[in-house]
Each structure stands twice: as C-alpha cells, then as structure tokens.
Amino acid sequence: MTALLRIRGVSKSFGAVAAVRDVSFDLYAGEAHALVGENGAGKSTIVKMLAGVHRPDSGALELSGTPLALGGPADAKAAGIAVIYQEPTLFPDLSVAENIAMGRQPLGRFNTIDRAAMVSQAARLFTRLGVSIDPNRPARGLSIADQQLVEIAKALSADARVVVMDEPTAALTGVEVERLFAVARSLRDGGAALLFISHRFEEITALCQRVTIMRDGRHMSTDLLADTSVDEMVRRMVGRDLDALFPKQDVVPGATVLKIDGLTRDPVFHDISFEVRAGEIVALAGLVGSGRSEVVQSIFGVDPRDAGTVEVAGKSLKPGKPKHAMAAGVALVPEDRRQQGLLMELSIERNVTLPRSRSLSQLGFLTGSRERRSAQEWTERLKTKYGRLSDEVGTLSGGNQQKVVLAKWLATKPKVLIVDEPTRGIDVGTKAEVHRLMSSLAAEGVAVLMVSSELPEVLGMADRVLVMREGRLVTELSRSEATEEAVMFAATGQEATV
Amino acid sequence: GGTTKSSTEGQNTAAPQSTAGQANPNAPLKEGLKIAYLPKQLNNPYTDVEVGGGKVAVDEIKGAYKLVGPNDASASSQVSYINTLIQQQQDVIAVAANDPNAVCPSLNQARKAGIKVITFDSDASKTCRDAFINQATTQGIGESLVKMASELAGGEGEIAVLSATPNATNQNSWIEVMKTELAKPANSKLKLVKIAYGNDEDQKSFTEAQGLLQSYPNLKVIVSPTTVGIAAASRYVSASSYKGKVAITGLGLPNQMRQYVKDGTVKKFALWNPADIGYLAAYAGAAMSSGQITGAQGEKFTAGKLGEYTIGADGEIVLGPPTEFTAENIDKFNF
Amino acid sequence: MTAVELPAPKRSSLDVVLRARELGIVLALVLLVAVTTISNPRFLSGQSIRDILLNTAILAVLAVGQAVVVITRNIDLSVGSVLGLSAFTVGTLLQNYPGIPVVFALLVGAGVGAACGVLNGVLVRYGNVPALVVTLGTLYVIRGVTYFWAGGSQINADELPPSFLNFGTADIPWLVILAVVVLVVTAVVLRSYRTGRELYAMGSSPQAAQLAGIPVGRRTIGAFVVSGGLAGLAGVLFAARFGTIDAAAGTGMELNVVAAVVVGGVAVFGGSGTVWGAALGALLLTTIGSALAVLEINQFWQQAIVGGLILLAIGADRLVAVRVAAGLKKRGSHVG
Amino acid sequence: MSAEQLTETRIGRLANWNVAIIAITAVVLVIAAASVNSFGTAQNFGFLVLDLLPIALVALPMTLVIVTGEIDLSVASTLGLSSAVMGYLWNANQPIETIIPVCLLLGAVLGAINGFFVTVLGLPSLAVTIGTLALYRGLAFVVLGDGAVADFPAVYTDWVTGTIAGTPIPNVLIVLVVLAVIFGVILHATPIGRAVFAVGASEQAARFAGIRPGRLKFWLYVASGTIAGLAGVLWTLRYSSARADNGAGLELAVVAAVLLGGVSIFGGKGALPGVIAGVVLLGSLQNALRLSDVSNEALNVVTGVLLIASVLGPNLIRRRT
Ligand SMILES: Nc1ncnc2c1ncn2[C@@H]1O[C@H](COP(=O)(O)OP(=O)(O)OP(=O)(O)O)[C@@H](O)[C@H]1O
Ligand SMILES: Nc1ncnc2c1ncn2[C@@H]1O[C@H](COP(=O)(O)OP(=O)(O)OP(=O)(O)O)[C@@H](O)[C@H]1O
Ligand SMILES: [Mg+2]
Ligand SMILES: [Mg+2]
User: Fold this and answer.
1) Position with higher pLDDT, C291 vs A327
2) Is residue C2 a part of any domain in this protein?
3) Is A141 in the pocket of ligand 2 (CB under 6 A)?
4) Cys-Cys crosslink for A397: which of A40, B74, B271, C290, Cβ 3.0 to 4.6 Å?
5) Domain A256-492: homologous superfamily in CATH
6) What is the CATH number of the domain that holds D129?
7) Could you tell me the CA-to-CA distances from B322 to A53, B54, B250 in Å, in that order?
8) 10 Å Cβ neighbour count for C208?
C-alpha cells in the first residue's frame, strides 16, 4: 500500500486554543483509517484542514507525493477529496438531487443543467445505498438521518480518491450503518482512502484497518487495528484507565412520576401510553424515524399533541407549553444540539443559565453575577472544556457542546429528565461520565426517560425498554428481557438480519 | 371636561410682537446684513430662480447671502434649519413655509432673538412672521387659472387640476378660489372633475396626468398650478395620443415649458417672475431690519429695481399680477 | 437488498409551489384588470396598456436585479440611489454629447450601476458587513454624491436628444422589450446554469455553500453587480421615459422594489423564488396604482390599499407554503 | 476560573463596539463643542434633544425587535397615523387628555397587527412591515387627507418644547431618559431580556428552553407601536401640527441609528447604551455640520459612511488581531 495522502506536522490554533498541534499520519490507498480521540481532541479540525476549510498554521499536506495547498473547499474537491462533515450541510430549499449534484450538475445543450440526468444520478446513488428518498423533494424537512444519508450520497457521487467521514454514523441505526459500510468497503476496495471518525469502537473494528489516536490536539499513535485492543485505544485517548461504561446502579423504583396516556399526534405517533417511576431509567428504542423524538418533544410541550394526557407527579401538563413542563420539573435534552439545544452565538454562561433566568433573578432583576457563578459550578461539574465562560458556545467541540446542554438542564434539578440521544457524538470518556450522571440522578429519585439509537447504551442503562415502530409503542421489555435481538425484533417487526 | 379645541379657541394666537417700535421711513439700509433663505426644498428649479433673485438683491445691498434648506420639502426639516439659523444669529430669515403652523414656534423663537422673518411663496401663520411676499393675490391667480381654462376649453367641458402635495397651502387656496369662480354662472358649463396630486415630484405628476386622461376620456383641460406638475403633464401629453385633444395650462417656468409651447401641446400658461419674489423678500427684510418698516399696514419701502411697495393688510406685500405666456411672447423670458 | 424503484421524473414539489405562487399573482392581476375594465373600459385601451407596461418596465428591471440579490439571502436597498446617480450621469452625458447612441447611454448607465454594485458587494463580502447595513449606508452615500454633483440643476426634456426621448416614448415600446430581455436572460441563468443554482444554494445555506466549494465571494459580488447594473440600466430607462432628471430621481424607490420582489414570492431569507415572480410583482404593483387612479378611488386610499395588498399577497403565499410543507412531512424516507 | 479571569471577562465583554461607539460619541461632542460656534449653547442643546427625540424614542423598542432578529419598518407610518388621528380627534373637539391615551392605544393596536402577521401567521417581518408601512401611512391620509391640524393647546405644546424650570434641560428629555432606562433594564437585566437575546440567537433553541418566541415578539411589536404612537403625539405637539405625512422616511434613520449602535441585524447581539450613543452621534453630527454650514448632501454621505464604518471597523480590527 502506498501513502495516498500524507499529513505532515500540521498545526492549527483558534486564538488561544491550540486545536491541532504538529500532527502527522498517512492515508493509504485502499485502506479505511480510523481517527479517534476525545471530544475536542482536534479530529474535526483535521477534517476541516483536509477539506480546505481551515488552512494549517504550519505543516503541509501531500497528495500522491506532490504538495497540496488548499485555498478553499473547491480546491479540495478538485483534488479528489470528498468530505462528510460532522454536521449535515445541505441546502434546505434545493431538491435532494440538486444538493447531491451541486457544482457537478450534468450539463446538456448550451451548458444548461440536464435535470433529468441529475435526478436519475441521485436515484442511482440512493439505490446503491439502499434507501428510498425522493430525489425531487426539497432537503428541508428531512430527518437528521436522511440528511446524513444525502450527505453520504453526495460524497459518493464525487468519485473521490480520499473520502473523509466525520462521525457519519452518529445519527444512523444499525441497518443504515451496515449499508453505509458496505458502500464504504466497496469504495475502499476500489482504491480510495477512507478517513473514518467515530466514537463507536464496534464500528471502527468492523470497518477500519488502521487507527490514529489523538489527544489534546496531539498525535498519540497510529497502529494496525489488529495490533491493538479497544482498552488500549481508550487508554491512549483519555490518558488513563476508564471506569465502567454503563454504571447503572440498581434502584428500587419509587412512585410514578411521569404518566403518559394515549398520547397521539397525527400522523407521527399514535396512542402512546407508559409510565416512568422515580429512580427508574426507561429507554425509548426504535429505528430512526419511528417517532421517538416527536413523542418526547410532545411530552415536553415544544410540539403540540392531538390527544392524550401527560401527568407529572399527578399533575397534568397543558399541551404545547414547555414552560409548564419545566415548572412541573421536566427537563428535555433535545437530540439536535445545534438547532434545539444551544444558542450557538451566545456565551456558555447564557446557555447554561437560560432556562433558569427567572429563578436566578432577584426581585425580577439579573445582574449577571449569580448567573456566572451558577454557570461556572455546573460546567465544572460536567468537566466541560472551554476558555472563558463568555466564549460563544459555537466554538466548543461537539462533545463539549453536549455537556453544556446537559449542564443547562441538570441545573434545573428536574424531577423528570428526558434525554434524546444523550451521548450522540460524545467520546467514551464523557459518555461514561454522562451515564454515571444519569445513573446517580436516578439514584437520587429522578425519573429518567432516555431516547437512544445506541443499543449498548439502551441495554446497559435502562431498567425498562420501550420499543417504538412506525409511531406506535409495540413492546415493553424489562431489563432482563431486553436483549439486542429482542429490541431489534420489536423495532423492525422481523428477525434481526444484522 | 378636558382641554378641547373649542375650549382653547383664540388662546393660541397671542404671539410675541417683537417688532414693536416705531418705523423710521428715512433710516438708511444697513450694510452687511446676514440674510438667509430657507426655501421649501433645495434643488428645485423654481426655488433656484427665486433664491437667485434673492442673491442679486442681497449683493446689491451689500449683505451676506446664505441659502440653506432640506431636500425633502418637509416642515420638520425646515424647523431644524430655522434653529440652526437662530444659533448663527442671522439678521433676516426669508422662508417659504412647508407647513404654516409647524414652523411657527421656531420662527417666533427667531423673532424673539431679534431676527426678522419674511415669508415668501408659501406663507406661515401670520402670527409668526413679520411680512409675507405674496407672488400675486390668491384671488388673482385663481381667477386667471379659471380664465385660461375656460378659454382653452371653449367655455364648456370637463377640467381637472393637477396640484402639488395635498397640503400645500398656496395650491389649496388657489384651488379654493377656482372652485368659487367655477360656481359662478358664467362658468357653469365647466366641470371640475378631479383634483390629483403629483406631490411636486416629476414622476408622480407624470403618472397622475396619465391617470387623469384614462379616467376622464372627455377631459378638455388639465390645470396644473405648479411648475413641476405642468411640465410633467405637458411631457406626457406631448408624447401620447392625447396631444392636440387635451389642453394643458397652469403655472409654469418658461424655460421648462418652451418646448411644449412650441410643439403646440401648451397654448398658454401663466406665472409671475419668481426671481422678483426672492428679490423683493431681501429688500423687505433689509428694510425691516434697518428700521424703515415694522410690518404694519400702509408702510412703504423701496425695493431696488422693482420700485416702491406698500405693505397691505396682515403684513402682505403683493408682487404684482402674473404674466401670461404664449408662443408669441415666450422667447422674451429666460428663467 | 431490494432495488429501489426509480421515481419517474416528475415535477418536483418545489416547482409546484413556485408555480402556485406565480399563479396566485397572475390571478390577482386578472381579477384586478377585469374589475377595473368593467367600471371603465378605457383601462384596456392600447394607450393605457402601453402606459402600464412602460411604467412596469423600470420597476421590473429593478425587481429582477433585487430578486437576484435576495435569492442569495442579501438585500440591496441602494437601488433607488443608484438609479438616481445613473440617470443623472447619463442625462449629463447626453446633454453634453447629444450625438451619443442610445446603446452607449444604456451601457454607461449599467456601468455606473455595476460600479456601485461592486462597492456594495465588496463591502458585504470582504468587509463582512450585512447587506442591509451596507446598502442602507450606500443608499445615503450615493444619494449624497448625486446631490453634491447635481446641486439644484435639473436636466429637462428639451436638453435631451430627441432620439433618446424617442427610445422612451416611441411607438415601439423599447423599454418593455428591454425589460423582457433582461427578465428572460436572468431567469434562464438562474434556472438552468450552475452559476444560477449556486446563487440559490448560497441563499439557502451560506455555510453549506462555503463548504460545497462555491466561490461565495465572487458570487455575492456578482449578484450585487447584477443588481447595481440593472438599477443603472433602470436609471437610463427612467431618464428616457420621464425626460426630467434631477438629483432626487428614484428617491424612495427601494421600498417599492423590495415590495415587488416580496409580493412576487421571493423569500426574503433567500434560497427560493424566481425573477418571473418578481417581475409579476412589479406588474401587479404598477397595475394597482393605475387601476386605483382609474377606479376613482380616493387618492388618499391608494397607499393604504397597496399596503393591504402586500400583506394579502405574502399571507396567501404563506398559506400555500404551509400546505406544501405539511405534505412533505408525510413523505419521510424508509430504508428500502 | 479565578477572580482575575472574571475581571478579564468583564473587560473582554465591554471592550467591544458598544464602548467604542460611546467613546466616539463623546469625542465628537467634545470636538463639536470646542470647534463649532454655538454648538455648546443651552438653546442648541434643547434643539438637539428635540431633533433626535423621535428617533431616540422609536429606536428603544426597535433595538429589542432587531435583537430578536426581526425588524419593524412601519414605525414612521405608525407615528404619522398617530399624528393624523390626533389631529382628527382634536378637530372633532375631543379633549386632548383623551386623545393622547387613544393615540398610544392606537399605536399598540398597530403594533399588534404587525405582531399578528409576524408571529401568528409566521410571515417575514421585513415583508410585513413594508406592507404596513404603506398601509398605515395610507390610512393616515385617509383620516386627515390634505389637511394639517394646528392650534393644539399651548400648555401642551409649550411643555414639549420647553425646559425644566430654571434649567436648560428640555422636558421631553425626562420622558426619553425614563423610557431608555426602562428598556435598558428590561433588555440587560431581566429574564425577558435574556429571552430576547435567546430568541434572536435561535428561535427553536429558545423554544426548547421554555421561551415562547411568538408571544415575546408580539409584545415587542406592541411596544414598538405604542412608542411610535407616543412619538407621533410628541411630534404633533412639538410642531403644533398634525399631518398625515409627519415623520415620513424616519424608519430608515431609526434602523441606521440602531445598527450604528452595534446591534446585529441578524439578531442575538446588541446593547442599548450603544444604540443611545448611536442616536446621539448621528444627531449631534448633523447638528454640528449644519451649524458649520455643511450642506445636507454631506450629511447624507456622513450618515451612510458612519453606518458602514460602524460594522466594518470592528470587523477589520478583529481580523487584524
Ligand atoms: N472555529 C473555531 N474557533 C475556535 N475554536 C475552535 C474552532 N473550531 C474548533 N475549535 C476548538 O478546537 C478544539 C478541537 O475541536 P474539534 O472540533 O476538532 O474536536 P473534535 O475532536 O472533532 O471533537 P468532537 O469529537 O467533539 O467532535 C476544541 O477545543 C474546539 O473548541
Ligand atoms: N424536521 C422534520 N421535518 C419533517 N419530518 C420530520 C422531521 N423530523 C422527523 N420527521 C419525521 O417524523 C417521523 C418521526 O421522527 P423522529 O425524529 O421523531 O424519529 P426518532 O425515532 O426520534 O428518530 P431519530 O433517531 O432520527 O430522532 C419520521 O417519519 C421522520 O421522517
Ligand atoms: Mg468533531
Ligand atoms: Mg430522534
């Protein structure tokens, strides 16, 4: 195998933050190369340098032995580097086909765009990925998973020599991940170099040959996966041995805190009823698009509901009023932190204290000092890495952003904590922390409702597992009944094929 | 209870009579008087001719001429300029008011500060200025507009008015006179069908003229007592199929109208010489500032080449009758 | 894995929405014309239609340029001032050199406007200043410069060469023809060329456009140059049509233009809408103005009615959009 | 984070455009007072305050509206309609003590109409308020037509143009200062203010934090309309003239002042002291230049250049560091 792309001693700083420091490694043609590291280790920054979004402060890139200077994303594209970014980057107003073809639209007479060819090209790509998305529909309104799939199709359409994927699977479930991997393997075997970033080790071992580990912006090691173990990788990533990943304590459940009865919202979900008791962690599992997020958003009141009741500690919540839910002690950590969880342009401080601005005020006024103190306390508790409390949240790494969202809601001292994909895009170390946190909250008597697409997390954390399929609650499994097969069977309605 | 219009009637007219004192008709005209012109709006050809005449007069009497003004013909901007002129301690402010009342408090402040206020072209409320240069009597203009319209229409038919802004004082008072004239039996066959407003904007006047002709197929005459309006209406008609069928008349500048008079779109229109208005305003202001006159009825003063003027009722000084322009005489005028 | 059926190439729902939008304006237009004509048949006379189209031409050219900018999620408030500057420049030029051919005058006007567009574009792009701020600023600056230059002088019809005035008022409606050409060319570029689609992409998501390697800077400046250039062109048309030019020409026009674009269904947040819509919006607004004059509706009501109609237009547009969005939600994807 | 870091944060937060614009304004005031004849007089101070009063008043709620990411271009028309209705009612022999509250109420209703279109129907505010800009101005003409109504009671007009007895401080300055403090405190030191910023930064995320963006914006529009109604009343009394075209074109000056004050047109960022400084800067520059016989044209150019420079300057500085 030859080095197709060489990364040589690149560094990149943002103001005082040295995001990447003197990192070197090679990508070979025909390999899938994993890049792992804690949140904020600098992975996405490397990706953005390869994409031409950031220019390295020092160091250089080499493609097939010739130096590669990228002035912008267009240069990277031209050099045959395709990138799937951590956050989907679609044009909501344009059709899916156009999103995929942007900049490379097939041309017809007089150099005009050949729309028919463009649409059939998109359709072919979706066939290859095994999904059915209407190429003619606008990208607006696609679920996160579908958006991610369009991103993948976009990268595939480029026929790139180097394909970089920054956590492409974070929003996908097993079946879709398998499809993606099948395609990735065929790309790889066709001679492309793949750089694959994920926080899920099972995916890395399933796809990759070599792994590069980063910590605090530095390159730690590059090894053949065959020569290393998951424990070893984790140790290098976090610099210490890790505690148990799913530290679920056994708690004797208390009184019913959250009671959902006949919750319906056409056409997304129908007749959902369940209860969560104090000290319990209940997982809501299902395939992407089965309607779980919609259910919890409706419980919290950000989405309306057509029928049904929600009771917290015996008091019923008005529909469509998150403030009511918050006052009753419900907190929702939403699935999409960029759109729903955070105010990206506001400071960490404002984000952490936003839901409590009323309770932090004195006589209705806020002077800032109480907010600052509280924000500091909670970000410290969650071990959030940042420069200053006044920094914009948008400059934090994905994982640290997630911690800010958690801090924001844990600080409200909820009776019912609803978490939607709480560890999406979070590194193993933080993940363990988040799990420990959930577990200890449950031990303190908080009722936890967790939506998760990660089966190990569901199985490891939940006292009970509720499974949804196509907007209906199909099964309830106790901790002992909940196995991977049982959950998948319920979620898909057929024997698991994965 | 409460303060209503009727409960305050008559209370507001008490204005400071800062001009108290005796007139001395033989006092010499002071030199070096600071005379400032504040027209309705800068950069308007008619205004330029007016203040141009003012500049000539100020130079003759060796004063300091100044021209300030808004670009937007609004009363509120004029107030800011009056305030500035007060700060700059001018001797005379010659102002064409965009609103007779809105400028009043400021003008009175100016008069308290010893500045003589002469209005021209468009009067302010008479409680807040010392004299008004009236280009022609309102009655005279209204009558002459109706006379021209009647001649052009052959004594009967539909006529329409294309005015400036809906609240232009002078326009409205002329239109009032026109209505009274039209009510007379002699003009009973003339029918005023519409008053349109071009806001003294060229484009708006153009479009309004167009609208008039569409709405009133039998229209015989458009009377536009504003230079902007008459020019725009003439231009529209001269290039449209209405040429020769509809007559245009009103008040216009000979230079702007020459083309349309020559191509037959316009048979006749009228105007006083605007330069003389500015000229007269300067002399009136200077005479007042020098103590020759106080603004009381019957006082006399000499206004350079224009000769002697007598102050009429309410401090009005009438310039003289308007001139009618036709294809025969238009080439004798250049303004 | 079962093969996914290739969807038959059909009209995208996006197109359907846009079509519906423009259809709505056309319907409103037809209704308006019908009502007005019933009350005064002269409204449909040749002269009247000519007048409306000639007046629309100027607004439509401006609206097409504005639409291009708005599609990229920007706005150009300076068009009224640019129109004034261009009209005065061309007027002065023709005053001094009456022999200049009309085509040259058009080019000069467009050139002056394009230069203003470059200024706007560069400030937006390299100064990183929001377009609303930049163009609000240049609205003042360019108008100020024109006043400086023009002072009180006014260029009258009799000082302009007859050939030029003829261009504005001749039997062949050159203004309308020119506007239609501008409209068609812009529409085709926006719909069927990569550059055009990139403008939509930028408006739809600026970050994504950057990441997709679209030369955002060049395209932004390009959009402003188009808008400026068309505003300059409109200035020449203005001069030819109205014959009288002073420093105030086109004052306050920006709000009309934005209104036309908005009524025409171009989303103010970029990414959607067509220049057809914008031009129809211009036609509708102009026709409303003329119709109200003909319908003998009190002059004082005119502005109020225009305002009400703008609200009605965007409200109706919204209803259509909501319905379509609801339709889309039901069409999620499923792993095949 | 240590105490040292805390103060550093505070300095960091202050060392922004807000402080810069206040400093620039102070410098301009000092230079103008020193170099322009009679700029510093008490009488001129009074004129200055009266001139910038309507812009300053309307800019207060406008700041909050723009921080939420919306805009209200109808304010000047609301002012005009309020003025027209005031004249109409005065002519109809209504007591002024009734008319003034009615005009404020009218402003609130007009604001609520904007709010309804923007929040309930979810239409873009730029488009909506361009529509109501035309609608309200048109209605003002419908109400008052060509007429101008004058002769408002001297007690009221004198109060508006007068000063606090024995001082050169204009009476209306009290109104302005009180309202500025109220709006400033609301924006910067209450949960409502936090919500305003949150909605501007991301409406969806704000909703997930229990804020109701629609309701908030609705009330901001009501506030904007009410203040514009008040500005209409004060305008009418100042000039003692109620007219349908009062305040025409003021909306752009207000937006310019707010943006000059460092408020981001995209929402989420801005501060009220900066806006006040922006209004004062524009007003005093115009006043000083006019006193120095600089033409109107130059004022236009200065306004435009300042506006662009206010955003461009900080951007360029940031890029260099
Ligand atoms: N545009 C930026 N401005 C300032 N700081 C930045 C910027 N982008 C990244 N950083 C900082 O650089 C560091 C590395 O971030 P990066 O996004 O590369 O991490 P990552 O390894 O991808 O983490 P995650 O797994 O959470 O996605 C972080 O500390 C982050 O806060
Ligand atoms: N923003 C959106 N616009 C339109 N439809 C959506 C949107 N989000 C989700 N949907 C659709 O609503 C249904 C339920 O989606 P939901 O996000 O609740 O599922 P989920 O089980 O939580 O999956 P995920 O793991 O993606 O969150 C799906 O059909 C999905 O396609
Ligand atoms: Mg990352
Ligand atoms: Mg979900």
Assistant:
1) A327
2) no
3) yes
4) A40
5) P-loop containing nucleotide triphosphate hydrolases (3.40.50.300)
6) 1.10.3470
7) 75, 19, 11
8) 22
On whether the CB atoms of residues C279 and C63 are closer than 8 A, the answer is: yes
Which tens digits make up the pLDDT trace of A203-255? 899 999 999 999 888 999 999 999 988 888 888 887 766 556 666 677 788 89
| pTM of the full structure | 0.83
Question: What residues 177-236 of chain C have any CB closer than 8 A to a CB of chain A?
Answer: 188, 192-194, 197-198, 200-201, 203-205, 207-215
Ramachandran angles phi, psi of A164, nearest 5°: -110, 130
Q: Is the pLDDT at B17 greater than 60, yes or no? A: no
Regarding an ipTM greater than 0.85, the answer is no
As a whole number of angstroms, the distance between CA A276 and CA B177 comes to 86
Q: Which of D195, D202, D207 sits opposite A322 (nearest CB)?
A: D207
| Residue A406, helix vs strand vs coil | helix
For C248, the domain range is 9-38+47-328
What pLDDT does residue A295 have? 94
* Token output for A355: 């839901």
Domain A3-90+142-238 has CATH 2.60.260.20: no
Residues found in chain D:
321
Q: Is residue C16 part of a domain?
A: yes
D/C Cβ contact: 3+ pairs below 8 Å: yes
Residues A325, A327, A333, A336, Cα dihedral to 10°: 60
Q: Give pLDDT tens digits for D243-283.
A: 888 988 888 889 888 988 888 888 888 899 999 999 999 88
Q: What is the mean predicted confidence (pLDDT) over C37-49?
A: 83
Q: Is ligand 2 within 6 A of the CB of residue A131?
A: no
> For chain D, what is the domain count?
1
> Which residue, A307, A308, A271, A312, is CA-closest to A418?
A312
Q: Are B36 and D178 in contact (CB under 8 A)?
A: no
Interface A–C counts its CB contacts (< 8 A) at 144
CA atoms within 13 A on the CB side of D3: 0
Question: Does the CA dihedral C19-C25-C29-C30 come out positive or negative?
Answer: positive
The pLDDT assigned to D7 comes to 38
Chain D residue whose CA is closest to C124: D312
Q: Please determine, for residue A12, whether its predicted confidence score (pLDDT) is greater than 70.
A: yes
In a domain, C1, yes or no: no
Contact D191 A358 (CB under 8 A): yes
Tell whether the torsion through CA atoms of A179, A180, A184 and A185 is positive or negative.
negative
- How many C-beta atoms surround the C-beta of residue D240 within 10 A? 26
CA distance A439 to A427: 18
CB atoms within 10 A of CB B278: 29
Q: What's the gap in Å between A472 CA and the centre of ligand 4?
A: 14
- Locate tokens 């008079």: which residue? B261
Could you report the per-residue pLDDT of C180-211, keeping only the tens digit for each?
999 999 999 999 999 999 999 999 999 899 88
Pocket of ligand 1 (CB under 6 A): A 14, 17, 19, 37, 39-45, 86, 395-399, 425, 427
What's the A420 CA to ligand 4 centre distance in angstroms?
6
pLDDT at B85 over 60: yes
Domain count, chain C: 1
Nearest to A22 by CA among A235, A263, A217, A252: A217
Instruction: Note whether A3-90+142-238 and A256-492 share their fold.
Output: yes
DSSP bridge partners of A58 = A11
Split at pLDDT 50, 70, 90, the class of B158 is very high
Pairwise CA distance, residues A263 & A269, whole Å: 8
Q: How confident is the model at residue D178 (pLDDT cuts 50, 70, 90)?
A: very high
Q: Is A286 in the pocket of ligand 2 (CB under 6 A)?
A: yes
Ligand 3: centre distance to CA A397 (Å)? 6
As a whole number of angstroms, the distance between CA D261 and CA D276 comes to 7
The amino acid sitting at D123 is L
3-state helix vs strand vs coil in chain D, percent to 5 = 75, 0, 20
